[in-house]
Structures are given as structure tokens and as C-alpha cells.
Amino acid sequence: MALDPVTAGIDLVSTVISRIFPDKTEEEKAQLSATLAVVQGQLSINQAEAANTSVFVSGWRPFIGWVCGVACAWNWIGIPIANFLMVFARLWFTFPDFALSQADISEMMPILMGMLGLGGLRTVEKIQGVAAK
Questions:
Q1: I want to staple 125 with a disulfide (CB 3.0 to 4.6 A). Which of 5, 42, 71, 130 is the partner?
Q2: Is 9 part of any domain?
């Protein structure tokens, strides 16, 4: 009975109210669907990169992991050993007195921690028996 003036008036009032005060659940659903679309798009990009046979496309994540690992090893193991060896080398050879200083890796650590965090989540999935896609 859309021609009924009471029903038409109620429809008009509800339309005006819904435009002035939109339903929060509908907005939240729209935001969630937009966020899910972005995440699914990124996942499809990640899958395409991982499936690529070129090391320049699929190997950049392992490369970053190796660079961070080598930098940490050099900073915490290599430099102290090199400084120790230079002290003894000065006993037999004459060269300027200097010491290698520790590198500032504050910019690299967030990358490494993020990669280790993702690796840790996969370990939890393996323990729980979740199959890789």
C-alpha cells in the first residue's frame, strides 16, 4: 500500500532519518569490506610474486632477510672479533691505531623484527597444523 498517505509519510521520514543518521553497522560493514578487498588484493600480489621463477621478483624477501642477518652478524660478532685481532696485529705490525665502531642499525631492526614476527606466526600455524596455501 505505497499509495497510502500514512505509509508514504513513514517511508519519507525513515529515508530522511537514515540519511541524517546513517546506520553505523552499515558503515562498519562497508569499511570492513573495503579493508578485506585491500588485504585480498595484497595477498594475490604476494602469491603472484612467490610463484614467479625470477629471483628478482620472488627473492626480494629472502634477500632482505639475508642482508639483515649478515648485518647483525657483522655488527655483533664480526666487529668485536676484528677489533680483537687488530689489537694483536699491532704487536707485530705498525699501522694506525683505530677500532671499528658498531653500526647504527636502528633503521634495520624494525624490518628484521617484522620479518621475524611473520616467521613466528607461520611457526605457530605449523604447530597447529594449518596447511600452507
A1: 130
A2: no
pLDDT tens track, the chain, 133 positions: 456 666 766 777 777 777 777 767 777 788 888 888 887 877 777 777 777 777 766 677 778 878 888 888 999 999 999 999 988 888 888 877 777 888 888 887 887 777 766 656 667 777 777 776 5
80 domain residue, yes or no:
yes
Closest CA to 64 of 107, 21, 35, 95: 107
Question: Would you say residue 87 lies in a domain?
Answer: yes
Q: For residue 94, give the amino acid letter.
A: T
Predicted TM-score (pTM) of the model is 0.46
